[in-house]
Queue: 2 jobs
Job 1
Amino acid sequence: MSDRLFIFDTTLRDGEQVPGCQLNTIEKIQVARQLEALGVDVIEAGFPVSSPGDFNSVIEISKAVTWPTICALTRAVERDIDVAAEALQYAKRKRIHTGIGTSDSHIKYKFNSNREEIIERAVAAVKYARRYVEDVEFYAEDAGRTDNEYLARVVEAVIRAGATVVNIPDTTGYCLPAEYGEKIKYLVEHVDNIDRAIISTHCHNDLGMATANTISGVLNGARQVEVTINGIGERAGNTSLEEVAMILKCHNNIPIETNINTTKIYPTSRMVSSLMNMPVQPNKAIVGKNAFAHSSGIHQDGVLKNVQTYEIINPRDVGIDDNAIVLTARSGRAALRNRLDSLGVTLSQEKLDQVYEEFLRLADKKKEINDDDVLVLAGAERSLNHRIKLDYLQVTSGVGVQSVASIGLNISGEKFEDCASGNGPVDAAIKALKKIINRQMTLKEFTIQAISKGSDDVGKVHMQVEYDNHNYYGFGANTDIIAASVEAYIDCINKFK
Ligand code: KIV
Ligand code: ZN
C-alpha cells in the first residue's frame, strides 16, 4: 500500500516574499483557486501580522477555497498568533504555523538566548496556538544547521505541547541530500512521540539542492513537503512543486502518492509566472520553455523513432497541449474563453468582452496569439487604475544618428508632453519621461524577456527603479519593445509611495 504525501504550497507566502513578486488580494485568490484545482493539501496564505494586505489576503483566500487547509505563518509571539487566528476565522480547515530559530547562530545572534529558553518559547507558542486551532505546525528555523540531538529535543517538546506537524526547514539551503535525509531519519528514530505528528520538509535552493533534499527527506520518513510553483521563493527559491510531483509520478517504484492533478501543472506555472511578473528560466525542469524541446539532430532522430528514447515525461501529463487550438484574429470568444479556462483564468462575461476587444487588436498586429499573450491580456486591467498612463510615444532611431523620443502622458486626466534625445531609443524615451516626472529616480535593473516565436511577438520588460531609498518593480508588455520599456518604468512610478 502506498503512503500519502501531503503537499503544502507556500507560493503565496515564501514565494510572495520575493522582491517584485507581490500580488494583490484578487490575484492571490486567483492563484489559491488554481492551487485548489491542482490538488494541493495546504495553502500557506500569508503572514497576517506582517501587513494589513497579508491579513486581508488570508481572510479572502479562506473564504474563496474549500478543500485545502489554509495556513497562516507566525513567529513564536502571542500577538502574531492572535492575529493569525483572527485572519483564519473563515477557513473551513485551518492551521497556524508558528516557530523559532533553533540553530546555535540563530539562538545566539538573533535571540541573544540559550537552548533551554528557546525550547520554552517554542512550547509556549505551540500551546498558545492550540488554544485557537487543533492543527498547529511548528517550524524549527535553520533546522538544516541545527545539531540533531538538540533538534530532536525541540521536536519532542513541541509535539508534547500539541504540534501536529513538525517542519524541519533547511532555511539557508546548506544541507547535502544525504545529510538532510539523515536528519529526518534521526528524528524518526530518536523522537519518542514522533508517531503523533507529521514531519515536513522545507528546503531552500541556495546550492541547487532543494528538490534533492526534499526527496531525500521523504525517502527517510517526511510525509509533508513545503513547495512553491516554479520554485519561486527567497533568494534562490524553494523546492518546486512540479519537480517533486513529477519525480514521484515517474519513479512509480517509490510507494508514495500525492493528490496532485499533474495536468494542471503547466497552466498553474504560467499563471504564477504571469501574475508575479517572474519569468521561468527556459531550461527549468518540467515547466521551462525548453523542457520538452529536442534540438540536437541525434535526439530528434531518436524521438522521431520512439519518443521514449529521450523523453521520460509525456508533456500532456503536465498539461502541455501541443494540439491546442491556435488563436488568431478569426478566433471567437468561445475559443478565447476555452484557452483562458485551460490556463486557470475565469472571467465574467463583461471582462471577457473587454479582453476579447484587446485580443482582436493584438491579433491584428501579430499572426498567432500564444498563452503568454493571453495571460498578459487577461491581466491588463492591473494598469487600468494607474494615475499615470502612457498616452503616446514616438521614437526615431537608427545607426549613426542620435535617437529622439517624444512622449505624452496622461496624469490624473491632464495631458503632458515632452521630448529628449538619448543614447538609443529606450534611453531617449526614458529621458523624455523623466522630464515630465521630475524626481530623483534611478533605473537599477532592466530585463527584456526573449521573444519566443516571431518578430511580431509581445515583448515583456521587467524593471527595477530606485526612488527615495526604496526599490520599485514594474512590468510592461507590448509588441513594441520601446513602448514596453516605458510602460514598465511608468508601472514603477505608479507604485511610488
Ligand atoms: O525558510 C524558513 O525557515 C521558513 C520558515 C519561516 C518556515 O520559511
Ligand atoms: Zn522558507
Job 2
Amino acid sequence: MPNPLYDALFATLADRDSTLLRLQDGTEISGSAFYGQIARFAHGLRHLGVQPGDRVAVQIAKSPEALALYAATVSIGAVFLPLNTAYTAAELDYFIGNATPRVFLCDPAKADSLRALTDSHGANLLTLDARGEGSLMALSASQPSTFTASDCAPDALAAILYTSGTTGRSKGAMLTHDNLLSNAKTLAQLWRFDDTDILLHALPIFHTHGLFVASNVSLISGGQMIFLPSFDAETAIRLLPEATAMMGVPTFYTRLLDSPGLPEAAKHMRLFISGSAPLLAETHTAFEAQTGHRILERYGMTETNMNTSNPYEGERRAGTVGFPLPGVEIRLTSNGTEVAQGEVGMIEVRGPNVFAGYWQMPEKTAEELTADGWFLTGDLATQDADGYISIVGRAKDLIITGGYNVYPKELELLLDAVPGVLESAVIGLPHPDFGEAVFAVLSPRKGVTLDPAAVLAAVADSLARFKQPKAVVVVADLPRNTMGKVQKNLLRAEYAGWFKLG
Ligand code: AMP
C-alpha cells in the first residue's frame, strides 16, 4: 500500500539535484539534500518509538528542517501537529493534554520550562531551533539518508491543526492524506503551477495557508520556494525578482504597496495570490494600479483547506472570493434551507477537501459536519448572478439590533470609502434597548485626524437608520492576529460596557 502524501510530494525529491529551497542568505538546498534530511528525521522519529497514527506536536521556528520534519512525520504515517509559536505554556498545556503527542518539539530555550508539562502528559520532549540545531538533530544526524515510507490509507490522518479558537476552546481539525493531496492537486492545476515556478514563501508554517496551500502546491508541482522565516516588505521587494509567484495574507500586500520599488520588482511575476482574511477591494485596485497585476483571491479554512478561488484566466473580481473549486460543492443556507440568489446565507462545503472531524470532540463534529458530508463553515456570503461568491462576515459577527439583522461588511465597505478612513471594524455591543447596538471602530489614514461625527454623517444617507452605528471610536490600528485577521472578539471585549445596561 502506498503513502499518498509521500508519493505525491516527497518521493521524487530523492533524485532531484536541482534547488528546492532558497534561503534569505542565498543558501540553496537541493531536492536530494532535503530528502536526506527527511530520511534522517524519519529514522530519528521511528527510533523515538513514533508509530503510525501517533501525533508529533511542534512549536518551532520556521526553517527548512521544520518543513522536513513535517515531511518525515507524514511519511512514516504519523500525524503532524504544528502549534502557533506565540502560544504560552498555559495554552500548550491544553494542546498537549488534548492531543497526547508521542513527541513534542520546541525551541531549546524553552525546553527546561516545558519539561514538567510534557512529562505530565507523557510526551517525549525534544528540541529544534531556527537553524535546525537541537536534540532531534543530534539524534538524527548519523542516521541513513534513505528510508522506506510507511504505508497508509488515503483516509489516514496526516495532520491535526488547531483552530484559532476565538470563541471557546480551540478544536483540533483532523486532516487526512486525501484532504491535503486532493486540495494540493486541484490548486496546482487551477493556478497553473509547474516545475518552473519559484514561490516566494513568507508565511508561517503552523497554519493551513503556509503549510498546505503554499508548501504542498509548490512541492506537488516540482517547483522551488524562496523560504523566508517571516515577511518583511524590504526583503520581499529584494527577492521578488527571483520569484514567479507569491502567496500572502492581505497585510503583505498593503505593506508592499507602501514600499518603494514594488512596480519594478513585480513586473515579471506570473501570479499573486491572497487569502486567510478579506482583501479590501481598494488594495486589489491599488495593487493593479502600481503593478499591473490583479491579485487572485481565494477562500478557505483550517477544517476544509481551500474552497473557492477567483479564476486564473477570466475576471478576478475585487471583493469576491470567486467560484467553488473543481470537485468542491458549496451551498448558501439560512436555517437549513438554500437561500435565493443574491441573498445572504451561511457557506456549507462538501468535497474531498473537508476534514474528518474534530479530534476527540464528537459532539462539536456532529454540530458542524452533517452526516452527508456538509461542513457548516460559519461564514456568511452572497453569490451573484455570475456565480462569484462574496463573504459578508462570520455568522457570529452578525449583529441583531432591535430584531433587525445587520451585516458588518455592508457598513465596513461604506465606512472604508469615507475620505480619511483607512479601515473599519463594525461590531455589535450589548445595549439596554436594542439587545445589541451597532458600533464602529475606525483607523485613520496616515496623518489624518478623523472626526467620528463627520464620518457618521458621510454614511448616513446610504444606510437605513437601524443600521447606522450608535457610536464610533477611532484607534491607531485594528487588532490583528498573525494571519492578518481583525480580532473582533478583542474589540467586543474592550468596548463591552460602552452602552450602559442600566
Ligand atoms: P483559518 O481557519 O485560520 O484559516 O480561518 C478561516 C477563516 O478565515 C474563514 O472561515 C474565513 O472567515 C476567513 N477567510 C479566509 N479566507 C478569506 C477570504 N479570502 N476572505 C474573507 N475571509 C476569509
